[in-house]
Amino acid sequence: MAPEAPRAQTPLRRLWLFDFDWTVVNENSDTWIHRAAPGGSLPAAVADSYVAPDWIGYMNRVLSYLAEQGISAEDVRKQLEIIPWTPGMRQLLEAIRDRTPVDAGALASAAAAASSTASSAAATPTPAAESDGSAPATTASSSCEGAAQRPQPPPCSPEHWAAPGAGPFGSPCGSAAADGGGGGDDGGGGLALRGSQAAAILSDANSLFIPWILDAAATGGAAVAASDGGPGSGPGNGNGGKGGSMAADPLSGAFLQVITNPAHVHPSSRGIEVTPHHGPGPRSAAPPHACRLCHANLCKRTALRKLLSELQARGLTSPATQLVYVGDGKNDLCPALELRPGDVVMPRVGFALHKLLAARGAAGAAHGAAAAGTAGGGSKAGDDMVYGSVEGATAAGGKRPGREGEEAVRATCVPWSDGHDILAWAAKQDAAAEVEELRDRAAALRV
Ligand SMILES: [Mg+2]
Ligand SMILES: [Zn+2]
């Protein structure tokens, strides 16, 4: 297929790249679904059957066990709709969505429309490989009944996204996070982003789970969540975006792409099946990769390169577009190494990525490094079940961090604890950039 002609639009000022598990949500969605099993947990023979690095094989064993027990895909979905979100993440994602140019939004909608056509019924075992090679999660969203008909957030007008942010910038960084993001969240403390921005997801979850979760509050499943889910903040999954018990906007359509492992509902068993993102088969979204750092099913760096070349071909990004990568896990290191000076990698404090970046001497990674020392154990184990401990190896390639000759981290490292931290950081950056622009304009007028 010939590449699309570049669009006559200004490239994004910032492109956000989000991991999903333990980043957007405060859990691992793949293991969260164990709770859907009869009695609330899996038998040990299934739960303990993971043999690294075949996580996809493990997931399919879990999912087929659930199907055999009469747990439908809809039951799994309901379980996912109450997964806790990371405090402040919904506010962050909504703030980015509100700065996403209409043209970019149209791309996301087009992806959703195309995929809903491709898999109009969950029961249809359509090959997940899309013509463009990616497997947008919106595909999966649409493959679940009713998803395509759900109300989407109103598109932002060009006036809206081109205008200065509505809310006053003023809250000091971290103020919202200081209280754990507890109840009464006001949607970001009035922090607003400036300039055109958009987001994509790079996740080792799958193309059904992610949109189910992103759109949960819109379906009513998670609308019960009222608070922002900080520790001790009371009931709720942190997904209530507006304070109170109102349903929040569906968010899957707000992303340019969701790059993950394709999943579908099997027509006869009615169970969910997951396919590796990278693989030789027709259901895989992309061909096998050759990266030694990553598990065979997904190299986020390979996927990121493809995404960036597609976005650049569409005129959505340029070399001046700042990339901000937000993640927590070991498989987020590989894409972080793709970032350049001027880009930003944001590792979650206390999780594996932070420790790996600190070990590589990434600028800024020392902040909160004491907490990062807990990564790989304790309550911040994150994806250790999938990738093993940080101490064991960085990933399947077995390379240890901090060795001579290893690829350096070129991006600035900004650790975060919750979405409020990230939103405050970005709002502060954007406000400073706007002051700079005004100063330049004033100087030009004086000349
Ligand atoms: Mg993660
Ligand atoms: Zn890789």
TrEMBL record:
Pfam families: Put_Phosphatase. Residues 229-244 have a biased composition (Gly residues). This is Uncharacterized protein. Coiled coil: none annotated. It comes from Edaphochlamys debaryana. Residues 116-129 have a biased composition (Low complexity). PANTHER family: LP01149P, PHOSPHATASE, ORPHAN 1, 2. GO terms for molecular function: phosphatase activity. Residues 116-181, 223-246 are annotated as: Disordered.
